[in-house]
Every structure is written in C-alpha cells, then in structure tokens.
Amino acid sequence: MTRRAILKGTGSALPRKRVSNAELAERVDTSDEWIVERTGIRFRHIAEPDETTGTLAAAAAKEALMAAGLEASDIGLVIVATATPDNTFPATATKVQALIGAPDCIAFDVAAVCSGFLYAVSVADSMIRTGAADHALVIGSETFSRILDWDDRTTCVLFGDGAGAVVLSAEDVEDDRGILATRLHAEGQYSDMLYVDGGPSTTGTVGHVRMQGREVFRHAVTNLAAVLGEVLGDVGLSASDIDWVVPHQANKRIIDATAKKLGLPADRVVLTVDQHANTSAASVPLALDLAVRDGRIKRGDLVVLEAMGGGFTWGAAVLRV
C-alpha cells in the first residue's frame, strides 16, 4: 500500500462581469480579429470592486469541498497560489480559511505566477505523503485585472480573473491512482521577460505587468514540452498513454505548438483560453474543473497538468483520477 494524494473534488469561481473582445476594443486600440488571431481569446472575466482574489478563492474552495463530500472542518492544509494577493500580508490562504469556516490548520500562499498552481500541488502532495495533512485545499486564484496597464494593448487583452480549486486527500492505495509525479523548474535570469514593474521593497507600488511576448512564447513551447516528457518519464509513461492534458491557458498558439511537439491530438487537450483568457495561477484548476464537470475527465483517466509563468517558472504533474 502506498499513501498518495488523491483528487477528490474540483471547483471554480468567475467574476460576474464578462468582457468580450469587442467590448475591450471600445477602450483599447485593438480588435476582436487581432486578439483571436494571436491568442485565441474571445472573452475574459473582470472582477468588480467587491470581488477579490480571496473571495473568488473561497467560492471555488466551497465548490471543491462540496464535490469531495467534505466539510471545511476536515481540511488540514490550505494553499493559495496567486500573484495578486488581497494584501501583502497576511496570506490570502488565511482569509480563505476564515471565509470557508475551516478551523486551525496550515495555511499559506505560493507565489510562482502562472506556474503557482503546479508548485502548490507539488507542495501539497509532499505534505500529504509525509502525513502533515490528510485533506488539502489547493487553490489558484487571481485578479490580474488589478495589475494590468490598460493603455498597453499587448498585455491587457491577454488576462482575466478567476479561481479554481481542488481537494486532495490522503489514501493508501495499491493501484496507480492519485498524483504520481511532479516536476518543477525555475530560471531567474529570464525574469525581465515577464514581470510586474512594482513591489513593496522596490517601488512601494503595485506596478503593472510587462512582457516580451515573442521570447515568452519561444521559451514556453520548449520548456513545457520538455517538462511533460520529464514527468511522464518519471513514471515510465509516454505521451500516447495520456488521456487528457490540462495546460496553462495563456495562448492557444502555445498550447497547439506544445501539443504538436509531443504528438498529442488536439481532442485530448482541454482548452478554455477562449472563454477565460489567461488567469495565471487559476487557469489550470479552472480548466480542470470544467473538464471534470462536463464529463470529459472521468475516474481512471491519466491526466497531465502543465504551466509556465514569470520567473521563468514552469512545471508539470501527472495523476490518475
């Protein structure tokens, strides 16, 4: 028997306000055709003043708990992956803990931008395997609209807000269910290609997203294909064994290029970037929740999660649902 982290439930939350490319073109020098051709994005959700990273995370967490058949009192670990926390401190995870009514437990944030959810899953998996917690809430939540420069059409059209959550629970299993392997990477020398030009210790401001799009694209395709190969190799599997890939929803061209490099057919890749845009750390769990709830991902499927973000950071996880 092996103690492993098992996916028990998923959940998601999106802001009330849904914005189309045409609506965005009314305030930015862009067009629906320009955005769709370069990114595949058609809509994004933008948080209202009363919607925060914490409130969206809590709403997604409640859905995941319901799907898992658990109560907040069962949770021993809360990790929120975010680059847009409610406050510099305390951790947004502690706000989520309070909002869902979870008692004293471990709660902290992970900051790895778009790869944050993969980093958080890896940490939760390790803590569950070592017995630090039996049930964990792992959440990716962002309000990226708060750090966008709405005069920069090369970045503001790319991002949206939202939250996705999973419940991971410890089980002693004899088969290959649960999280089988994770791989994480970072290369800080590329930080100036995707970053926010502000921070408490540097400018004392929140700052805005800045990006060198072509360089990010090039690194993303190479790094994501490589890490998927690594994590599958760790468990003796190949791309042909995968039932579903749930990628970071940054750009349809990146997703398509990565799938092609691995020889994966498009119908085995979950795609939500057209509806949600890039929701950073929230994009993978948002897409995972959608595919679980519409029945595409089902018990027994082999699923690979992958993402890359500012830093650069990137990672992947393979699990049997």
From TrEMBL:
Q: Where is this region: ACP-binding?
A: 249-253
Q: How does it assemble?
A: Homodimer.
The protein's job, in short, is: Catalyzes the condensation reaction of fatty acid synthesis by the addition to an acyl acceptor of two carbons from malonyl-ACP. Catalyzes the first condensation reaction which initiates fatty acid synthesis and may therefore play a role in governing the total rate of fatty acid production. Possesses both acetoacetyl-ACP synthase and acetyl transacylase activities. Its substrate specificity determines the biosynthesis of branched-chain and/or straight-chain of fatty acids.
Active-site positions on this chain: C114, H248, N278
Q: Which family does it belong to?
A: Belongs to the thiolase-like superfamily. FabH family.
**Gene that this sequence comes from:** fabH
Enzyme category, top tier: transferase
Gene Ontology molecular function: 3-oxoacyl-[acyl-carrier-protein] synthase activity; beta-ketoacyl-acyl-carrier-protein synthase III activity
Family matches, as InterPro entries: ACP_syn_III_C (IPR013747), ACP_syn_III_N (IPR013751), FabH (IPR004655), Thiolase-like (IPR016039)
Q: Provide the Gene Ontology terms for cellular component.
A: cytoplasm
Q: Which organism is it from?
A: Sphingopyxis indica
* One of the Pfam families matching this protein, by short name: ACP_syn_III_C
User: Which keywords does this Swiss-Prot/TrEMBL entry list?
Assistant: Acyltransferase, Cytoplasm, Fatty acid biosynthesis, Fatty acid metabolism, Lipid biosynthesis, Lipid metabolism, Multifunctional enzyme, Transferase
Domain named Beta-ketoacyl-[acyl-carrier-protein] synthase III C-terminal is located at 235-320
Q: Does the keyword Nucleotide-binding apply?
A: no
User: Which catalytic reaction applies to this protein?
Assistant: malonyl-[ACP] + acetyl-CoA + H(+) = 3-oxobutanoyl-[ACP] + CO2 + CoA
Sections of the chain in a coiled coil:
none
What is the protein's name according to its record? Beta-ketoacyl-[acyl-carrier-protein] synthase III
- Gene3D superfamilies, from UniProt? 3.40.47.10
Transmembrane regions listed in the UniProt entry? none
Domains (record comment): The last Arg residue of the ACP-binding site is essential for the weak association between ACP/AcpP and FabH.
Instruction: State the Gene Ontology BP annotations.
Output: fatty acid biosynthetic process; secondary metabolite biosynthetic process
Q: What is the lineage of its organism?
A: Bacteria, Pseudomonadati, Pseudomonadota, Alphaproteobacteria, Sphingomonadales
Domain of life the protein comes from = Bacteria
The metabolic or biological pathway listed in the UniProt record of this protein is: Lipid metabolism; fatty acid biosynthesis
Which compartments is it annotated to reside in?
Answer: Cytoplasm
